[in-house]
């Protein structure tokens, strides 16, 4: 628990000192106490330039388990995005966020967010997590792109 | 000339006319301009090939972050206060950058090299606390002007400053706080004047007579002591009603409206200045009243001190002093002497060359006196004096214990008194039980900053519930990379007499991994009274001494020396940095 806290304090410090342009990541504020919870971060990912996602900003919540950084955090889009690698619950399915796959304790929050930005632009059809977008991407690519653009206009403009 | 090619200078000050006698890089036309800029320009004129950059700002500003410090091979301190020295020390230790600290007070000069694991750091040896006068001397029996000045500063605090400050004039604060709040300056000035310059002196006169009437046996021991001290003194109460406190013409100012600070005045003018100062403080500092802190460069506050200390001096038949002299004494200003600074700069170059050429085992702490009568120079091998338990340069993460009164202790007390004053932290992040409850820094959003500021006046326990579940606060300095834990304890009864600050702050030194884990307790308040170590910085007796200024240090580039040692590194491009 001390290691987790220490690491999260360090992550916050590193982010404050330097972070990728256009991204936001900060511990969630409890409006009642004004304190921020190190175990839950509120983030904003800008759609990658040159991709169909460009122009939108998408809100993501990162939840850190007590075992972090030995175990990876859980990343959830709020609201849920239409994307083949995002579960209907909003949770992101990405190898670097999987303990049994490519997660390493040294991965920083900035790296996670950049990884997810990349995933939005370049979905991975080999590990689908949401049926509709998966089917649309693999069968009707045009409709998929249109749906993504629509999403950029609706969800992506709110923030 | 010594091979430095890239120099960056940081300083926040502007050039004062009084700097010109010793800071040769500046001329009369430069008065009022920024020191760093003028120094850089003057050097550039003489050494056009030199790459010199200047910044106007405080070295503790967020923009001078670790990346900034990391870009230098060598860092020079030419600072005038302990707080900033500690800050630069911590940053340099955390980044493993060599630091050379220099300073001078009058004829005494010092150079100390600091390099992690090779020499002690600036905080390895606790600095002795500034010289303090016995309370009794200040409160009841002054016999020097400095005693009157110290008293005047306490009076300023008691009337207009923060309550948290230690002050033995608390009775005056209590008695007059209502009148201060009312804002009627005439009433306040008369009340204060009558109380401190008239009634108090009268009661001392009575006390003295009392002794003659009753003899020793019926008096308290303390009273006897005061009487003994007063016996030889001629006490002169001052009755404000005999003075014109609201004159049409202000006689203590010249035609341009400047206070005649180089002259000694008639006592009536000090009375007038006293009234005028109180009026100015109440009318011009309206919102700040209750939080005013003495600043020798604030003309209004200085006026108050000049008036009060001279009036008190009159009370006790002590010779009056000019405003200029009082400013010097009140600001603990010790005259800076150019030759001392020149020698310091020269020694600093030599130490710097040792570092750059890798001869770190030869680093020295050098102290000297350039006064004719007692020319001495002591140089000591400091490489053996590293404090293994130092909270800054060893790997020990310190643990502190803080006991506070839950009914009065606010977040701002924790930050201003414990963290900033006691621990010299500049930009704290506070975390407890996985929640960050305070941060500060230029990078934060405006609404975040506002929200945190809004929390400052709140009670740590009652309002913010800090320590309800977990009592360990993690403190992390955003700029210094200094981290420590504070164990928080609440108590209803923190004895105010023993702990005038209203809290008890102790260090529980954690044994480092290699040593045995037994916890050693040492009280931090009152601070350890260590005798002067061989390696120290000369300004330790005062927070506000004039230390070598940028110009003085920059002159190192003009030091004419060529030895093998110098040539060896001459062709290496070196960056160095000066913080002032
Ligand atoms: Zn140290």
From TrEMBL, chain A:
InterPro entries: Ub_conjugating_enzyme, UBC, UBQ-conjugating_AS, UBQ-conjugating_enzyme/RWD. GO terms for molecular function: ATP binding; ubiquitin-like protein transferase activity. The active site is at residue 93. PROSITE patterns: UBC_1 (PS00183), UBC_2 (PS50127). Residues 3-157 form the UBC core domain. SUPFAM superfamilies: UBC-like (SSF54495). Pathway: Protein modification; protein sumoylation. The keyword Transcription does not apply. Keywords: ATP-binding, Nucleotide-binding, Nucleus, Transferase, Ubl conjugation pathway. It comes from Euplotes crassus. Gene3D superfamilies: Ubiquitin Conjugating Enzyme. Signal peptide: none annotated. Pfam families: UQ_con. The lineage of its organism: Eukaryota, Sar, Alveolata, Ciliophora, Intramacronucleata. This is SUMO-conjugating enzyme UBC9. Belongs to the ubiquitin-conjugating enzyme family. SMART domains: UBCc (SM00212). The keyword Nucleotide-binding applies. Its main location: nucleus. GO terms for cellular component: chromosome; nucleus. It is found in: Nucleus.
UniProtKB/TrEMBL annotation, chain B:
Residues 2-390 form the THIF-type NAD/FAD binding fold domain. Residues 220-327 form the Ubiquitin-activating enzyme SCCH domain. PROSITE patterns: UBIQUITIN_ACTIVAT_2. Zn(2+) binds at residues 121, 124, 390, 393. GO terms for biological process: protein sumoylation. The active site is at 136 (glycyl thioester intermediate). Pfam families: ThiF (PF00899), UAE_UbL (PF14732), UBA_E1_SCCH (PF10585). Residues 402-489 form the Ubiquitin/SUMO-activating enzyme ubiquitin-like domain. Gene3D superfamilies: NAD(P)-binding Rossmann-like Domain (3.40.50.720), Ubiquitin-activating enzyme E1, SCCH domain (1.10.10.2660), Ubiquitin-like 2 activating enzyme e1b. Chain: B, domain 3 (3.10.290.20). One of its GO terms (molecular function) is metal ion binding. It comes from the Eukaryota. ATP binds at residues 11, 19-22, 35, 80-85. Pathway: Protein modification; protein sumoylation; Protein modification; protein ubiquitination. Belongs to the ubiquitin-activating E1 family. PANTHER family: SUMO-ACTIVATING ENZYME SUBUNIT 2 (PTHR10953:SF5), UBIQUITIN-ACTIVATING ENZYME E1 (PTHR10953). Heterodimer. This is SUMO-activating enzyme subunit. It comes from Euplotes crassus. The lineage of its organism: Eukaryota, Sar, Alveolata, Ciliophora, Intramacronucleata.
């Amino acid at each position: 628990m001390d290691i987790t806290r220490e690491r999260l304090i360090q992550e916050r410090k590193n982010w404050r000192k330097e972070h990728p342009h256009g991204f936001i990541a900060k511990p969630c504020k409890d409006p009642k106490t004004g304190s921020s919870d190190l175990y839950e971060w509120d983030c904003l990912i800008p759609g990658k330039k040159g991709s169909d996602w460009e122009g939108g900003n998408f809100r993501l919540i990162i939840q850190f388990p007590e075992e972090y950084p030995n175990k990876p955090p859980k990343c959830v889009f709020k609201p849920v995005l239409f994307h083949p690698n995002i579960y209907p619950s909003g949770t992101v399915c990405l190898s670097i966020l999987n303990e049994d796959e490519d997660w390493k304790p040294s991965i920083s929050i900035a790296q996670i967010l950049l990884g997810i930005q990349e995933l939005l632009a370049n979905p991975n059809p080999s590990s689908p997590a949401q049926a509709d977008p998966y089917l649309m991407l693999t069968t009707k690519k045009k409709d998929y792109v249109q749906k993504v653009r629509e999403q950029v206009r609706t969800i992506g403009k709110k923030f | 000339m010594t091979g430095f090619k890239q120099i960056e200078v940081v300083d926040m000050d502007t050039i004062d006319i009084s700097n010109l006698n010793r800071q040769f890089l500046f001329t009369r036309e430069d008065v009022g301009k920024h020191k760093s800029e003028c120094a850089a320009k003057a050097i550039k004129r003489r050494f056009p090939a030199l790459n010199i950059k200047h910044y106007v700002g405080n070295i503790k500003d967020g923009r001078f972050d670790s990346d900034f410090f990391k870009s230098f091979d060598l860092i020079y301190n030419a600072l005038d206060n302990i707080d900033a020295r500690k800050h630069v020390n911590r940053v340099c230790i955390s980044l493993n950058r060599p630091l050379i600290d220099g300073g001078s007070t009058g004829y005494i000069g010092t150079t100390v090299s600091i390099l992690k694991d090779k020499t002690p750091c600036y905080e390895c040896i606790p600095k002795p606390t500034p010289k303090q006068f016995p309370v009794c001397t200040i409160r009841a029996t002054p016999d020097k002007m400095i005693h009157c000045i110290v008293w005047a500063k306490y009076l300023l605090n008691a009337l207009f400053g923060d309550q948290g400050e230690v002050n033995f004039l608390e009775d005056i604060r209590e008695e007059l706080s209502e009148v201060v709040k009312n804002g009627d300056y005439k009433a306040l000035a008369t009340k204060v004047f009558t109380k401190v310059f008239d009634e108090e002196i009268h009661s001392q006169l009575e006390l003295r007579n009392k002794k003659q009437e009753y003899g020793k046996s019926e008096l308290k021991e303390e009273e006897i002591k005061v009487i003994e001290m007063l016996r030889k003194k001629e006490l002169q109460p001052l009755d404000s009603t005999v003075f014109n406190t609201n004159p049409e013409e202000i006689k203590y100012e010249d035609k341009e409206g400047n206070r005649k600070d180089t002259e000694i005045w008639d006592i009536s003018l000090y009375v007038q200045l006293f009234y005028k100062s109180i009026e100015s403080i109440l009318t011009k500092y309206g919102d700040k009243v209750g939080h005013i802190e003495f600043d020798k460069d604030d003309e209004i506050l200085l006026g108050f001190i000049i008036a009060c200390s001279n009036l008190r001096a009159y009370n006790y038949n002590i010779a009056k002093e000019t405003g200029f002299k009082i400013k010097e004494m009140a600001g603990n200003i010790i005259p800076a002497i150019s030759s001392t600074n020149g020698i310091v700069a020269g020694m600093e170059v030599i130490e710097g060359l040792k570092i750059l050429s890798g001869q770190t085992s030869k680093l020295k702490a050098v102290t000297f006196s350039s006064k004719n009568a007692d020319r001495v120079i002591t140089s000591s091998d400091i490489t053996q004096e590293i404090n293994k338990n130092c909270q800054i340069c060893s790997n020990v993460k310190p643990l502190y214990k803080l006991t506070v009164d839950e009914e009065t202790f606010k977040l701002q007390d924790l930050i201003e008194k414990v963290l900033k004053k006691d621990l010299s932290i500049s930009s704290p992040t506070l975390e407890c039980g996985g929640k960050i409850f305070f941060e500060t820094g230029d990078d934060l959003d405006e609404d975040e900053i506002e929200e945190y500021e809004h929390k400052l006046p709140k009670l740590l326990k009652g309002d913010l519930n800090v320590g309800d579940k977990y009592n360990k606060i993690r403190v992390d300095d955003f700029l210094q990379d200094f981290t420590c834990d504070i164990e928080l304890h609440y108590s209803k009864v923190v004895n105010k007499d023993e702990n005038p600050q209203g809290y008890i702050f102790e260090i529980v030194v954690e044994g480092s991994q290699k040593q045995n884990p037994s916890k050693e307790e040492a009280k931090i308040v009152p601070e350890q009274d260590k005798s002067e170590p061989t390696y120290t910085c000369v300004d330790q007796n005062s927070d506000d001494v004039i230390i070598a200024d940028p110009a003085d240090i920059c002159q190192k580039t003009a030091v004419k020396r060529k030895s093998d040692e110098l040539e060896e590194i001459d062709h290496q491009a070196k960056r160095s940095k000066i913080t002032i």
